Amino acid sequence: MQIGKEKLLWMLEKMHQIRFYEETMAAVYMEGKLPPAIQKGLAFDIGAGPVPGEMHLAAGQEPVAVGVCAHLNDDDTVVGTHRPHHFAIAKGVPLDAMTAEMFGKVTGLGKGKGGHMHLFDNAHKFSCSGIVGASMPIACGAALAAKKMGKNWVSVAFFGEGAANQGSFHESMNLAALWKLPVIFVCEDNQWAISVPKAKATSVDWVTDRAAGYGIPGIRVAENDALHVFESIAPAITRARHGEGPSLIEVKTDRYFGHFQGDPETYRPKDEVSRLRVNDPIPKLAQMLKDKSFLTDQEEAALVKKTHEAVTQAFEFARTSAYPQAADALLDVFVQEHSHNWTPA
Amino acid sequence: MKTNRILTMAQAISEAMAQEMTRNADVFVMGEDIGSYGGIFGATGGLLDKFGKDRVMDTPISETAFIGAATGAAAAGLRPIVELMFVDFFGVCMDQIYNHLAKNTYMSGGHVKLPVVLTTAIGGGYSDAAQHSQCLYATFAHMPGLKIVVPSNAYDAKGLMIQAIRDDNPVMFMYHKGIMGLPWMSYLSGSSNAVPEDSYTIPFGQAHVMKEGTDLTIVSISQMAQKSMLAANELAEQGIHAEVIDLRTLVPMDTETVLKSVRKTGRLLVADEDYLGFGLTGEIAGLIAENLDTIKLKAPIKRLAVPNVPIPYSRPMEQFVIPQVGGIVNAALNLMDSITLQKQVA
After folding, report:
1. How far is B78 from chain A (nearest CA, A)?
2. pLDDT band at residue A164, thresholds of 50, 70 and 90?
3. CA distances from B207 to A130, B113, B176, B220, B222 (A)
4. Domains in chain B and their CATH numbers?
5. Among A3, A48, A283, B235, which residue's beta carbon has the most beta carbons within 10 A?
6. Domain range summary for chain A, segments of one domain joined by +
7. Residue B1's pLDDT is what?
8. How far apart are the C-alpha atoms of A326 and A48, rounded to whole Å?
9. DSSP annotation of B181
10. What confidence tier does B3 reach under pLDDT thresholds 50, 70, 90?
């Protein structure tokens, strides 16, 4: 599939935005979590600061998100994982409401009820889940709905290589293949399931080897490269849009941060991240654009400035937004009754 | 809506589904053996012939995948009815039921609408042992985010099912096998009753006073409500007038009807087929305890339920652990005989 200048620039811009978002979050997240502001004797307090709770960042994994989402539009569904920011940003989820959600503010996507692992944006058909392997069944449902409605919409389930060993993987692959659902299953192989390397948890080198067991195509993407991801998965998108069924994609990618912020990362070599960063996909894509004369240094600087400003504004919006009223906790267990548009009998 | 047409609960449920599927093209059904078989317990009988395989979909034995798919399809705008064959099978798919279907609306701040009806068979009494005989409605009622409907008869089942399908929230519709009116399992015939052909709804959170009485209140649900009625009839022959309340839905629960009745009778027996510990009987007892400022109890509260053991296979043991009509009668008689609280205090 030929890719134009505009889409390449979009990918670069989104990757810059994701990277700056994650780096900003990494810094903001640590506010208030370290001594001496916390309980004496603790090294770190996960529940303190403006962004409390767990935080899983995706710096390094940008190519998976932008390479896939570059094929999608607003009608397509994306279901992400516990590490969801790169998918959300690539799918077009507004940065302000997303960030406010992580700050627990009333202006957040879920009015502060979800937090960073539970981002829901109906307008962009984006959701995610903190449960490993849970994206796949739900993406099957979105695809089933598209099929029943006679639309050529596709849905994408992102999941990590660790999730490929969950029962939901097997059930969803079989169901989607059986019913020819327009799903693209995208496995992000960052080599680490928290602390356990893939080789110690997975029976095959490539999760895509399992695709044959479901009679569906398996596509390997061995490079952490946005353009490569985009081009490699094009047949899967086409296949889904034409009603021919699902595909299983696996992308080798790199996790620059720990599993969560505060992870001591005792399980991986000290120099692993610096070695991974040598192959940073962002300067690589920028260089390629410059080689094609699609981008000058000045234009890149302007693009970076623009994306950084948007991120900074989103954090400012989140920081200055109000908290929900405490008793708002009692609302939204159920949606308003009878909001559907037909007359009760 | 006067009618003399008697339906079984299974027939009433499938009729409700058919009427809603006719009315709204977004409604569809999926689950194991719900197509040509018509559902192992008959809840989807005849639907495949009426609506075809695109709207009545047999699934692989993959509860995580298809219940999760129901959540995804509902979020996308459809109204799935999805069947978990036995409630006991929740262990293979609870993550999708509880961490997703029940929570996504809340975690989205009320933005994600999930109009899913999750039907499932409950109950024992026919020697199906510990993995196919549980009720477990209290387990699901305990955890926020699911409406819990547990009908005791065909009339209620139809109205509650139509209400469930029209609800924009996840509803668990739990039918007891021993009141479905199946041709291959004995059932309490009070559950088959007159059902109008026209469509109608029964709002959630409205208990049904099945029988009025002045001496004691029996609170129950599902098949146990039918047993309670049989017990109340025996008690009436002995001059004891029990008021029998069928809660019909656990979430939301009609607490007012229960409180009003116990204020009147001063005696409460809760009869339940779920486990005794941390369940419906304790919930109702707690409700009364919290309202003792307006209730004068004449006797301590009595709870009947499965005594915290898995359901045994062998008939004498199973009949022993699941409350029976005779047990309800005896418990009621004990309540009437017991020294009143006032006397104890004096």
Report:
1. 7
2. very high
3. 37, 26, 18, 10, 12
4. 6-194 (3.40.50.970), 208-345 (3.40.50.920)
5. B235
6. 5-321
7. 59
8. 18
9. -
10. confident
pLDDT tens per residue across span A112-142: 999 999 999 999 999 999 999 999 999 999 9
Predicted pLDDT of residue B339: 55
Which residues 138-177 of B are in CB contact (within 8 Å) with A? 144-145, 147, 162, 166-169
Over 80: is that where the pLDDT of A343 sits?
no
Angle CA A76–A78–A79, to nearest 5: 150
> At residue A344, does pLDDT exceed 90?
no
Marked catalytic residue, from B100, B132, B176, B208? B132
Half-sphere exposure of B339 (CA within 13 A, CB side): 5
pLDDT at A338 over 60: no
Q: According to the model, what pLDDT value does residue B208 have?
A: 98
The two three-digit tokens of residue A227, written as one number:
């353009």
Span B94-132, pLDDT tens digits: 999 999 999 999 999 999 999 999 999 999 999 999 999
Which tokens hold the place of B69?
A: 């798919």
Rounded (10°) angle between helices B280-290 and B255-265: 70
**Mean pLDDT value across residues B17-35:** 98
Output the six-digit token pair for A188. Answer: 């992000």
Interface of B with A in 171-200 (CB under 8 A): 199-200
Judge whether B63 and B89 are in contact, CB under 8 Å.
Answer: yes
> Using CB atoms, which residue from B60, B68, B109 is nearest to A141?
B68
CATH of A5-321 given 2.60.40.1190, 2.170.130.30, 3.40.50.970, 3.30.420.10: 3.40.50.970
For residue A2, with 0-12 CB atoms within 10 Å meaning exposed, 13-18 middle and 19 or more buried, which class applies?
exposed
pLDDT of residue B344 exceeding 70, the answer is no
Note if B176 is an active site residue: no
Q: Do B99 and A140 touch (CB under 8 A)?
A: no
3-state helix, strand, coil in chain B (%, to 5): 40, 20, 40
pLDDT digits (tens, 9 = 90+) for A245-272: 999 999 999 999 999 999 999 999 999 9
DSSP code, position A121 = B
Question: Residue B251 to residues A335, B64, B145: CA-CA distances in angstroms?
Answer: 14, 24, 9
User: How far is Cα A140 from Cα A246, in angstroms, rounded to an integer?
Assistant: 9
Give the confidence band of A1 by pLDDT, cuts at 50, 70, 90: low
Length of chain B: 346
Q: Hey, how many other C-beta atoms are within 10 angstroms of the C-beta on A73?
A: 12
Contact A335 B169 (CB under 8 A): yes
CA distance A65 to A188: 9
Residue B220, amino acid: S
